[in-house]
Design brief:
The chain is of the alpha+beta class. 44% of the residues lie in helices and 31% in strands.
Length: 333
């Protein structure tokens, strides 16, 4: 591909896409590295351990095997539970039990209301909520507990379900980032694979079309609002994005305003005879200038939105195009 206005935009787009997806891929690799032990336990656990293993733990955050099945000397009910609600409707309860391990106590969070002989779950630090609302309260009610509770707990709720959901999300995100990097590299090797270049094919041979647009921008291009209009082309471009259509193909234009939390978004919508939609965004004054400039140069096109026009465009586009072409012929007589 020869170097011109359009090829430079494509190269910038490829570079930006490679940087964006590359950063995403690096982030996903870091997440995978951090989560590797978590996934290892998910896929190979639970590990059956005894109380000696639990009592020998000095740092629960660096355990090689933390997804375990444990049987204590005895299970006691603390009497504490936490209710989960959605929109005011109860969706579940978590109960707090205590496993006696010699002279130590291990807090267990479980979805089972009954006391079980053994529990399966993930060994983890005690979250501030559980520390404040369960352990601290128990120690206030039973002062002689002192330091009987171990400084970590067993979360016996849904480790497998949430773990597999996290693993699936990680795999999908990693695959998406890898695909994005490979696609960007492929477009760098062969820039004609880019969507901008392929979009020019509806007007003819892309290289010739690109040269014609380049030539007209240099000789007859006029900036109107957020677009450039040449003798034959309507061009909307940014540093790494481009959309073009031929003036003779423009059929319908109108202003669209969307009000949201981020404020008012104003855009000009330009439909051509191929069914292609060009969307130009900007400040409202710029969009007004854009639409006014197009309408002045092509007074035969449809301007403005109505449900009737939209319905006609969707159901009988050929009829709408024919009507606009007839108006153009009449205007040029």
């Amino acid at each position: 591909m020869e170097t011109n206005f359009i090829s430079n935009i494509i190269r910038r787009s490829n570079r930006n896409q490679l940087i964006l997806w590359g950063i995403g891929l690096v982030v996903m690799l870091v997440i995978i590295a951090i989560s590797l032990n978590h996934f290892y336990n998910l896929l190979t656990g639970p590990y059956v351990v005894d109380k000696d293993y639990i009592l020998g733990i000095t740092d629960v955050n660096n355990l090689r095997q933390f997804y375990v099945t444990l049987k204590g000397d005895e299970t006691l009910d603390t009497g504490f539970y936490k209710t989960s609600t959605t929109n005011g409707i109860e969706t579940g309860k978590d109960y707090y039990k205590t496993l006696i391990l010699d002279d130590k106590l291990l807090l267990v969070k479980t979805g089972d209301v009954d006391n079980l002989d053994a529990y399966t779950g993930a060994l983890t630090y005690v979250p501030p909520d559980e520390q404040r609302e369960v352990l601290d309260q128990l120690q206030r009610e039973i002062p002689n507990l002192d330091d009987s509770f171990l400084p970590f707990m067993l979360d016996a709720t849904d480790f497998k379900g949430s773990g597999y959901a996290g693993l699936a999300a990680t795999v999908v995100a990693f695959a998406a980032c890898l695909w994005g990097v490979l696609r960007a590299l492929g477009r760098i090797v062969n820039t004609e694979r880019h969507s901008i270049w392929r979009g020019l094919q509806r007007f003819g041979e892309p290289s010739s079309v690109a040269d014609q647009i380049e030539t007209e921008l240099g000789s007859s291009g006029e900036k109107v609002g957020n677009i450039q209009i040449t003798r034959n082309w309507l061009v909307a471009n940014k540093a790494s994005a481009l959309d073009v259509t031929q003036l003779k193909d423009v059929m319908w234009i109108y202003k669209k305003i969307v009000n949201g939390r981020g404020g008012k978004q104003v855009s000009a919508l330009v439909y051509d005879r191929h069914g292609h939609l060009m969307t130009v965004t900007g400040k409202e004054a710029q969009i007004d200038d854009t639409l006014r400039g197009i309408a002045q140069r092509m007074p035969w096109i449809m301007v403005g939105y109505s449900k009737e026009i939209e319905a006609a465009w969707k159901k009988d586009r050929a009829g709408v195009i024919n009507a606009v072409d007839q108006r153009r012929k009449q205007a040029n007589q």
